[in-house]
What does this fold into?
Amino acid sequence: GKEKWPRGEEKVWKEAMRDLDTDVSSITKSFVNHVQTSLARQPYNLDNLGAYQAAALSVRDNLLVNWNETSLQYTRKAPKRAYYLSLEFLMGRTLDNALLNLGLKDKYADGVEQLGFSMEDILDQERDAALGNGGLGRLAACYLDSSASQELPVWGYGLRYKYGIFQQLISPEGNQLEAPDPWLDNQNPWELPRLDVAYQVRFYGHADRLNDGTPRAVWAGGQEVLAVAYDVMIPGCYTKTTNNLRLWESKPKRGFDLNSFNAGNYEGAVESSNSAAAITSVLYPNDHTTFGKELRLKQQYFWTAASLADIIRRFKNIGKPITEFPDYVAIQLNDTHPTLAIPELMRILIDEEDQPWATAWQIVTNTFFYTNHTVLPEALEKWPVPLLEHLLPRHMQIIYDINLLFLQSVERKFPGDRDRLGRMSLIEEGFPKQVRMAFLASIGSRKVNGVAELHSDLVKTTILKDFVEFEGISKFGNVTNGITPRRWLDQCNPELSALISRTLKVDKAVWLKELTRLEQLLPFAEDAAFRAEWAAIKQRNKERLAHHVQVTLGLTINTNAMFDVQIKRLHEYKRQTLNILGVIHRYLTLKNMSAAEKKKVNPRVVFFAGKAAPAYYIAKLPSPPNHRQTIRLIVNVARVINADPDTKDLLSLYFLPDYSVSLAEVLIPASDISQHISTAGTEASGTSNMKFCLNGGLLLGTVDGANIEIAEEVGESNVFFFGHLTPAVEDLRYQHTYHPVPIEEKCPALAHVLNQVSAGLFGDADVYEPLLNTIRQGDHYLLSDDFDSYIAALAMVDEAYLDRTEWVKKSIRTTAKMGKFSSDRAIMEYAESYWNIEPLSVV
Ligand code: OX2
It folds into this structure.
């Protein structure tokens, strides 16, 4: 039946509520209107930043109309929804992406030009939203884009950090310096404060079991803080669907803590308001490391508690019994960071909804899904029991109860197997005892997945082996990661996108959402004219990068060289050190060449970018890793090599500071070859490998993570693989420990390179000794085992690049076969095989 219009005259409302007009003159009107009213400025004093703000506010109006309509449809149709809980969303810039997804970029460009601005300058004013460390956070951002583009009812939940990932500065000596990232300093047009959406979150206090025959307890006292919602609009590509990313900000419950204020304790009152605000003040720069820091645990609980309260309130509006919760709600845990959601939902169901334990556990284990992103032991979260007991006493009780019942059921299946009970317990014995979050996430979830085939196999056979044996293999799956082709092709490489649309004779609106259509490019690899266009675009992207480096760093780059790129967080397992030692090897080789030999050498420019863990941070580790020395070595090798007249035309090296999503958008389309050279079995997936290949860059890598699946798609002849395979790694490490062979014997080429560094060829000899010694002794990441095959692979890359026709063919074939790696495919796998949700179209 027809619903009754809620208030006033329907006609008047409806006429005013039309979608916004999007012809160029309406766009300039809206832009100028924001200049005059929202910004209160004049054409006389409007700079690029003001123009960016006006354009953003105007685009945001369009997003809000769609966002509202989408929310209304979700409320009306009450479909099952999925929620993506991630402590990190590495969004980057929004304006360009929003314009492209709305299909309005050309019109806005036209409009702002008429008003005397250039679109490029305007886009360049935006600061990155850098609320993440690396791959895990960027994956979350790609999944939001794909969810909206595939019209799936998916919301993200995260934290609104006042400061994102630190800004990286490099001192003249090559030291990394860190500065705060005040990204919210100039108003953020992409968020909508929802001061009316707020929840109280409790910490500390005491939990008393009722012992009335129910499992209930009362948790009281302690500190209460307020979680306030900020909503970020997530537009789908060529669809009205505009989803929501809800970020929580912490606030004191009252402006002051009145108790202490009344007692005359002014300082204490201010202190407690500070501590509430501190919860969401800064993103932890952890990438693959965990620390038992109270503030981090507070962040995790604050965020999961607020998100669950919000999800439950929305569910209750549907009016269904709580036992039907999993029919309407799926919650994806992005790594173990939100695992406290499991005991928190138990607490709500038992203490507040008065459900029996078994019913509550049934609801919980049908609601959550857990994605593991690493098997590195140092990255697996564990929280000290005393800290949990202090901060979250009720949750600690619940975790003990879950553990007891769980171990009883393990004992029933494997009677008398005490070792197994010890291995599988949620509580690791020791001083202090610790809660193993990956185990809690696994047993509390409906399904568990890894992020690439190899990684998912490793999860099943190593860290969660006992759980597979106990719960059955069908609970454990794989969803290979993906990337959004909107940002990582259409937006960052507009010329290539246009060439693809022309060649496929189909609008990008189609192929960007059906990326396997790129396969139709395959025959064009044989077309010389097409190859010429393809190569010319790569060349212009290299010039665009060179221009960027010229403008930002004042350095001149040889764009006739091969561009060789490694950009990612600095980490021992990612082996940036292998790369720089390879560069030194190349340098030493060039130095020994005759002029005639040099003539045959292809010039190469090597780029590095990436952040290392901050100094104060790694100082707390038992054995600090050497990322920072690696940066220092790269910078100092660059200083020597780039100034050496014997070699500088053939080899140069750059460390680009402050790696970010925006910098990646310039670097990736410019790369001829990129390096993904982790020790086999350590990089769960990698996602930048997919971005480079989608943009026609070739891959030099180990047989690891998603590299393997990329090679399966594009063909092994189009990638450069080297190094030992995963099954060999364990044996090799055993050899290193129990039968060490001196590096001079084992790998003379590497020994020579190390000795040159030790001898001071790049200055500061003693600074690098600890770094070099990790390779000479122990060599946990197997540089000495892989160095020779790495050098051989680099030579094969050189060789292949000499035949430019064949190289361009490889490049085209690579792009053509990357369809699988669209995050649309990945998100549909989650939707269908995990969450059981369906697209809902908003018209
Ligand atoms: C990263 C993994 O290291 C990387 O291989 C993967 O592609 C990415 O997550 C997205 O799945 N923190 N970051 C990661 O794992 C952890 C833990």
